[in-house]
Amino acid sequence: MTASPDTAETGSVPPLTGSLKSGDLRIDLERRIVWRGNMPLEISDLSFDLLVALARQPGRAMDMDAMARQVWNQASVSEETIAQRVALLRKALGDEARQPRYVRTVRNSGYAWIPPVAEGPAIPLQGRLVKAFSLAGAALILVLGAATLLPRWMERTDQPAPVTAPVAGPADSIDTTLPLQRARSLLELHRPEDTDTAIRLLEGILDDHPDHAGARLSLSFGLTTRATKFTAQAGDVSRAEALARSLLADNARDGAAWHALAYALDAQGQIDEALSAYTQAFTLDPGDAAALSSAAYLLRVRGQIHAALVLEARALEAGPPTLYGPLQIAVCLELIHHPAAEIWWGRALTEGAGTSVILAERMMADLRAGRPANALDRYQASAPGLQTTPRLQSLAGLAYWQLGETDRARRVFERAGDAAQPELAALNAIDGHSALSTQDWLNDAMSEGASWPDLRIRLAGVEARAGRTARALELVGTAIDLGWRDAGWIETSPALAPVAQSAAWPALAARIERELDAQRRLIEADPALVSLIYASD
User: Fold this and answer.
1) The dihedral formed by the CA atoms of 461, 483, 279 and 293, expressed in degrees to the nearest 10
2) Which of 284, 367, 396, 458 is 20 to 30 A from 203, comparing alpha carbons?
3) Of the ranges 40-54, 90-104, 151-165, 188-202, which one carries the lowest mean pLDDT score?
4) Of 440, 465, 445, 463, which is closest to residue 455 (Cα–Cα)?
5) Mapping DSSP to helix (H, G, I), strand (E, B) and coil, where does residue 40 land?
6) In this structure, are residues 74 and 168 in contact, taking their beta carbons and an 8 Å threshold?
7) What is the CA angle 151-94-71, rounded to 5?
8) Which residue(s) pair with 154 in the sheet?
9) Residues ≥6 apart with Cβ < 8 Å to 361
10) 64 touches 112 (CB < 8 A)
11) In what order do the strands lie in the sheet with 25-28?
12) What is the Cβ-side half-sphere exposure of residue 111, based on CA atoms within 13 angstroms?
C-alpha cells in the first residue's frame, strides 16, 4: 500500500532571483544553474533546492524538519532520505563528507553550508554558455570517454557501471555532447523518471548518429538499469546486450563495453558469463572499481563472501568507493553476523547509495530479522515514485504477509506484476489457487542460462505453500549448492514456513552455518581484510 505523505505549509523562503556567490561557486537562482568558473555543474532539481536552502543560512545548521519543509515541501522526511540527498549534492559539487568544503554534518542537528555567501545580480547566460561549451571544451569531454560520468551500479538491484569508455569516434559529433552529458547526469540520479528521460535522450542521439559509441554505451547501461531497478519495458535487457556486443565488435579490448555486457548478462541471471565479462572489464582497465565491485557482488551471490570482500578491497584501492561498495560490504558482513556490519551500513547511508537500492536492502534486513513493521515504515516514508517500483512493492507485500495481512499483501503483489509472481503464487497456493508451474518457470530460466539461487528460494515458497514440502526442500538444497547463505530469510519468510518447520530444515540450516563459518575463518585469517572492515575512514 502506498502512503500519501503529509504535506505542510512551507517555510518563508525568499524568491529565487539574482545569484549567490559562495567560494568558487556562482549560483544562478533564476535559471537554476551552478557554475564553477566557466563550467556548469550537473545538479538535479532537488539537490539544487537543498543547496540553496543551506546556502541561504551559511554557517548555521539546518535541522531535518526545516529541510523537509523547505526542500521537500513536506512536514517530515526520513533522515535516510535527507542523508542520501546530501550525499548526491556533495557528489555533484565534488565535496567529501570527511573533509568537506561546502556541506558539513552537524552532529544531532543537521547540515550546514560552510563558505560565506554573497548575493548578486542575475548572471548573463549567453557569455557563460559560449565559454563553457567551446569547441575545445566539447572535444575534451569526448576524449575523456563515453562513460566517465556514468553511475556505478550493481546486480539486478545494484550494479556498477564503468569508469572508462571508448575514445570518441567520427560519429561522436559536438552537437551530441550536451544531450549525452544530460543523459548521463540523469542516470546518476537513480530515479525511475530520470532514467526514462535519459533513455529517450540517448535514443534520440542514436536516431541521428546510429554509430555513436558513447550513446550506445550509455544506453546499454540505462536500459539494464531500468529493467533491474525500476519498471522494465519489453526488450530492455536484450537491447542492452546487443548494444554492448556491437561495441565489442568494433573493439574487443573495450573494457567499458565488456562492463556493459556483463551488466546485461547479470540482469538475465547468467552469473558465470557475467563474472567472466566483469573480469575482462577490470583486467583491461584495472582502475574500473565498479567492475570489481560488481564481480564482488556475484561472488557473494555464489556464497564466496571472503573472495567478494577481497575484490571490494581492490575496488577501494582502485579509486573512491563505488556507489554501492559500502552497501555491499555491509550486506556481506551481515550475512556472517560480523559486528562491523553496522559501521558499513552507516557508511552506505552517507556515501550516496541509490535510494531504491539501499531501501530494498534495508527492507530485506528488516524482514530477515522479523521486523516487518519497520520495513513498511521505510517503504511508506519513501517518495511516491519509489513506491511504484516493483521490487519494493514485492518486499512491501512480504512485510504485510509477515504481519498476517494477507489481503493487503495480495493487492500489493498484484500491483508489482511479474516481479512478485512467485510470491503471489505462493500466497494463492494456501487456498489451492496457485496456477504457477515452478518447473516450467525453472526450465525457462535455465534455458536462458539463469542460475540465481534466490530464484530457487522463491519457487520453494510456492511449492511449500502448495503442500509439496519435499519439493520445496529440494529447491532449497539446490539454492544452497548455488551459494544461498541466508538462513534467516528462510526462517522468517511466511511463504517458506513449512520448510522452516520441517524436520529436514535443521540439517539444511547447519549446512549454511558451516559454509558461513568457513568464510568467517578465511576473513579472520586475512589481516588486510580485517583492517579494511574496521576502517572508519
Assistant:
1) 80
2) 284
3) 151-165
4) 445
5) strand
6) no
7) 85
8) 159
9) 157, 158, 327, 330, 331, 348
10) no
11) 39-41, 33-36, 25-28, 19-22, 117-120
12) 29
- Does 9 have pLDDT greater than 60? no
Q: Are 460 and 499 in contact (CB under 8 A)?
A: yes
Per mean pLDDT, which range of 293-297, 305-309, 418-422, 432-436 is the poorest?
432-436
What's the rounded Cα separation, in Å, for the pair 427 and 423?
A: 6
User: Cell numbers at residue 206, please?
Assistant: 542514436
Q: To the nearest whole number, what is the mean pLDDT of the chain?
A: 80
- Cα–Cα distance between 315 and 333 in angstroms, integer? 17
Enter the DSSP assignment of 20.
E
Task: Round to whole Å and give the CA distance between 257 and 247.
Answer: 6
Q: What is the C-alpha to C-alpha distance for residues 325 and 316, in angstroms, rounded to an integer?
A: 8
- Which among 173, 170, 172, 217 has a CA at the least distance from the CA of 198? 217
List, in order, residues 6 or more apart from 431 with CB less than 8 Å away.
none
Cα–Cα distance measured from residue 278 to residue 284, given in angstroms and rounded to the nearest whole number: 10
Helix axes 527-534, 505-524, angle to 10 degrees: 100
Residue type, 525: A
pLDDT (tens digit, 9 = 90+) per residue, 131-180? 332 322 322 222 222 222 233 332 223 333 333 333 333 344 446 778 88
Q: Which of 138, 274, 147, 284 is nearest to 213 (CA)?
A: 147
Give the CB-side neighbour count of residue 503, counting CA atoms within 13 A.
0
Max distance between CA atoms of the chain, in angstroms, equals 76
Instruction: Quick: pLDDT tens for 472-530.
Output: 999 999 999 989 999 999 999 999 999 999 999 999 999 999 999 999 999 999 998 88
What sign for the dihedral angle of Cα 186, 192, 195, 199? negative
Q: In the structure grid, which three cell numbers stand for residue 167, read together?
A: 575514445
Q: Which amino acid appears at position 168 of this protein?
A: A
pTM to 2 decimals?
0.62
212, 206 in Cβ contact below 8 A? Answer: yes
Report the C-alpha gap between 531 and 335 in whole angstroms: 19
The mean pLDDT value for 378-392 works out to 84
Residues 112, 342, 320, 48, CA torsion sign? negative
Strand, helix or coil at 401? helix
Contact 224/251 with Cβ under 8 angstroms? no
Residue 117 burial class via C-beta count within 10 angstroms: exposed 0-12, middle 13-18, buried 19 and up: buried
Q: What is the pLDDT of residue 437?
A: 67
List the beta bridge partners of residue 112.
Answer: 104
**Helix segments in 34-165, DSSP class H:** 45-55, 64-67, 79-93, 125-132, 135-144
CA angle 510, 421, 445 (to 5 degrees): 70
Query: Contacts from 10-14 at CB under 8 Å and sequence distance 24+?
Result: 10/69, 10/70, 10/73, 11/66, 11/69, 11/70, 13/53, 13/56, 13/70, 14/56
